[in-house]
Amino acid sequence: MSASTPPPTLESIDELLLFRLSLLSAQTSALVVRLCEGRFGITRREWRVLGLLHSNDGMTPSALADHVQLDRARTSRAIGALVKKRLIVREINPSDRRGAHLTLTPSGQQLYRDLMPHVKDINRRILSVLNEEEMRQLESWIKKLHESTQLLNVELTPDFLKTYRIHGGRDAPPQSILD
User: Fold this and answer.
1) Count of CB atoms within 10 A of residue 77's CB?
2) 3 or 144: whose pLDDT is higher?
3) Can you name the residues that pair with 92 across neighbouring β-strands?
4) Would you tell me the crossing angle of helices 106-127 and 44-55 to the nearest 10 degrees?
5) 32 burial via Cβ count (<10 Å: 0-12, 13-18, 19+)
6) 35 and 115 in contact (C-beta within 8 Å)?
7) Which residue from 128, 130, 117 is spatially nearest to 39, judged by alpha carbons?
């Protein structure tokens, strides 16, 4: 923050870190979505799966879901679409039919090689407004925020309901409000 920028009071949604990051993510993700869908015929979620498999060939679907922090159903749909497009192969473990390993096909590897430079360029251009020291600070802050979030998840997860659906539907309020 510059000397002329007052610290956020966190009184409105516009000042909340998560809201601001969500807006930034939506704006930058839109660029990648248009690139992936318009030029390469895959969704952003499929790109995430493809990119992770490029670095982690042979991952299981559940490990992949955990790594990209998507629920297993969405991850499964992305995997199914990539298998149908012949960009990845799902190899069933013969000793455990429930287990599978995912690998990129040659077409999947080529798509990664074609798409990754464009995604890197978008990232590079977004970050171009930062100098080297600001980049180091950003990396440090992201690491700190990630660590803080991990601790907060451990601390607060038992207190929060996973979903309102257990109380009669998606729009039902938490039980404590009903009491």
Assistant:
1) 14
2) 144
3) 100
4) 110
5) middle
6) yes
7) 117
3-state helix, strand, coil in the chain (%, to 5): 65, 10, 25
Run of H or E including 162: none
Whether the predicted pLDDT of 164 surpasses 70:
no
Cβ contacts of 108 within 8 Å, gap of 6 or more: 50, 53, 54, 82, 86, 87, 88
| Tens digits of residue pLDDT in 119-143 | 999 999 999 999 999 999 999 999 9
Length of the chain in terms of residues written = 179
If phi > 0 it is left, if psi is from -120 to 50 it is alpha, else beta; for residue 99 that is beta
Residue carrying the six token digits 């042979």: 58
Tokens representing residue 140 in the block? 């440090």
At 103, which amino acid appears?
T
Chain Cα centroid distance, residue 24: 14
